[in-house]
């Protein structure tokens, strides 16, 4: 048992499209292996896309022809094939120094694509780093070090029958202003005969008296 309701959604149209509509939250919720896969594929796809664009620019400008047949400045220096264009794309987006392979003033479209790839690279970096940081700081894993007793008891406390269980914090860092909330989940049949398999009832843990606030030290 992990506190989740054992339910399955059915008859939901466009479920995948709804997840893609909020792609940032989807990336935060998915497993790390899929997150790293998307992270790698996003960069690889952008490198390949702009590599193809630079290669097409070189082909259209005649930069791939033999040296004796050109006689003019190429759009991108030292780009003689697709692999060289792909390497130039990686250097542009990762801001690695160009060296001999660099864009020239011969082709304005090549200069524009360098600017466009730099902007796209910044957007991808911001999105991926933001999603990874949001995933890392989520309190979901913090709950792994909060332990609940396997058994709960009903016993007298100050002359009243109380439903009690224990909570333990494994970490040395204290949890200040922890709010306690408990729900009783059970099946119920309404007066109209409707069967509710997971009826949720809030248990009074001292909301009115402020007893729902706890200083969890151990």
Automatic annotation (TrEMBL):
UniProt keyword Acyltransferase, yes or no: no
Catalytic activities: K(+)(in) = K(+)(out)
Single GO cellular component term: plasma membrane
A matching Pfam family: IRK_C
Protein name, UniProt field: Potassium inward rectifying channel subfamily J member 12
Top-rank taxon, per record: Eukaryota
Segments forming domain Potassium channel inwardly rectifying transmembrane: 1-139
Similarity-based family: Belongs to the inward rectifier-type potassium channel (TC 1.A.2.1) family.
Protein topology in the membrane: Multi-pass membrane protein
């Amino acid at each position: 048992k992990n506190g989740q309701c054992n339910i399955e959604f059915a008859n939901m149209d466009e479920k995948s499209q709804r997840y893609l509509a909020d792609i940032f939250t989807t990336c935060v919720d998915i497993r790390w292996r899929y997150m790293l896969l998307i992270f790698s594929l996003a960069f690889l796809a952008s490198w390949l896309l702009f590599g193809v664009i630079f290669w097409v620019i070189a082909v259209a400008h005649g930069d791939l022809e033999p040296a004796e047949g050109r006689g003019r400045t190429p759009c991108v220096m030292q780009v003689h094939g697709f692999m060289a264009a792909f390497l130039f794309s990686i250097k542009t987006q990762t801001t690695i120094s160009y060296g001999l392979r660099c864009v020239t003033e011969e082709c304005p479209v090549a200069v524009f694509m360098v600017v466009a790839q730099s902007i796209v690279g910044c957007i991808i970096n911001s999105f991926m780093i933001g999603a990874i940081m949001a995933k890392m700081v989520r309190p979901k894993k913090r709950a792994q070090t909060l332990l609940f007793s396997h058994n709960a008891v009903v016993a007298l406390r100050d002359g009243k029958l109380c439903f009690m269980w224990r909570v333990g914090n494994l970490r040395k860092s204290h949890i200040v202003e922890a709010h306690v909330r408990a729900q009783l989940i059970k099946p119920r049949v309404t007066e109209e005969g409707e069967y509710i398999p997971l009826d949720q009832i809030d248990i009074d843990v001292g909301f009115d008296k402020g007893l729902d606030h706890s200083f969890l030290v151990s």
